[in-house]
């Protein structure tokens, strides 16, 4: 569930709605992104079974204890060496490096934009912030995210990268996807319900991830069996909390903004399905 629904909530998809000149281009951009992501998911099966067949049966890629040299994160790189030699090994290494840079750049851009524009300019300053102050906050956020990423990278150095990605997907599936899904498809969804439900999904997914065996025991070093949450991924529970939170606080919302949200759903649905009324880019 985390991998399926978390994809829709990742910045790789969401940022494509805000970096295109028209609704038509937004649809095209999202289609290309989801298509390539789906293709990547198919490749994971091929790479996984290929590593089992060509790498784990070759002593060249195993250490004296029979474990994979460099850890499980090196499976795809060793597979490239096994099937294509040094040429393919160099190519895959370059692709991995370029992919890391692209992902880091995209996530940093999304995080800095969210803090500087959505949080600082819209919430804290009430929409009255100037461009220079937004840019300053964006730069500070970028530096802070970089430092935080380095610290977390050191902390989780020995963890399997593929598994760590699934945890990030779980957070996206719990915090972003319910808001996106309910706001687009449910006519009674309100701003207050979306904000509270999104925060509930975010907080629950992060807390359950921290107290799960994958982090509480494997990373933080607490004794085996001491984890407060017994499952490795929180998506099944935290995503449910996000959806229920949005539904509950939306139906309980009787504010004037809630009435405006409900009355504007039909126009929003027309724009989302046809692009009418949203065919040009807007300034942020």
Describe what this molecule looks like in 3D.
- With 284 residues, the protein is an all-alpha fold.
- Helix content is 71%, strand content 0%.
- The chain has twelve helices and no strands.
- Helix 7 runs antiparallel to helix 8.
- The longest helix is centred in the middle third of the chain and has 50 residues.
- The chain is globular, with a radius of gyration of 22 Å.
- The relative contact order is 0.11.
- The model has no long low-confidence stretch (mean pLDDT 85).
Q: Provide a count of the helices.
A: 12
Q: Judging from the principal axes of the Cα atoms, what is the shape?
A: globular
- Rg, rounded, reads 22 Å
Beta-strand level of the residues, as a percent range? Answer: under 5%
Proportion of residues in helical segments: over 70%
Quaternary structure annotation: single chain
Mean pLDDT: 85
Task: Give the total of beta strands.
Answer: 0
Return the string of H and E elements.
HHHHHHHHHHHH
Reported for the largest beta sheet, the result is:
none
N→C terminal distance: 33 Å
Structural class: mainly alpha
Low-confidence stretches: none
């Amino acid at each position: 569930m985390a991998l399926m629904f978390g994809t829709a909530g990742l910045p790789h998809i969401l940022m494509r709605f805000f970096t295109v000149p028209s609704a038509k281009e937004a649809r095209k951009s999202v289609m290309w992104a989801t298509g390539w992501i789906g293709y990547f998911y198919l490749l994971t099966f091929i790479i996984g079974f290929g590593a089992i067949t060509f790498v784990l049966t070759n002593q060249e890629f195993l250490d004296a204890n029979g474990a994979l040299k460099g850890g499980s994160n090196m499976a795809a790189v060793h597979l490239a060496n096994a099937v294509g030699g040094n040429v393919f090994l160099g190519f895959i290494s370059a692709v991995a490096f370029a992919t890391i840079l692209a992902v880091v750049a995209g996530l940093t851009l999304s995080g800095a934009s969210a803090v500087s524009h959505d949080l600082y300019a819209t919430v804290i300053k009430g929409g009255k912030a100037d461009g220079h102050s937004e840019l300053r906050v964006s730069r500070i956020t970028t530096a802070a995210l970089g430092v935080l990423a380095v610290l977390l990278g050191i902390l989780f150095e020995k963890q399997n990268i593929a598994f760590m990605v699934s945890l990030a997907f779980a957070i996206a599936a719990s915090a972003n996807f319910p808001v996106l899904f309910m706001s687009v498809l449910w006519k009674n969804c309100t701003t207050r319900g979306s904000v509270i439900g999104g925060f509930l999904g975010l907080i629950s997914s992060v807390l359950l991830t921290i107290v799960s065996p994958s982090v509480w025991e494997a990373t933080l070093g607490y004794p085996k069996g001491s984890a407060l949450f017994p499952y490795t991924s929180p998506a099944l529970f935290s995503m449910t909390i996000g959806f229920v939170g949005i539904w509950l606080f939306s139906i309980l919302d009787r504010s004037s903004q809630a009435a405006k949200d409900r009355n504007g759903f039909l126009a929003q649905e027309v724009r989302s399905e046809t692009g009418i009324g949203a065919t040009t880019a807007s300034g942020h």
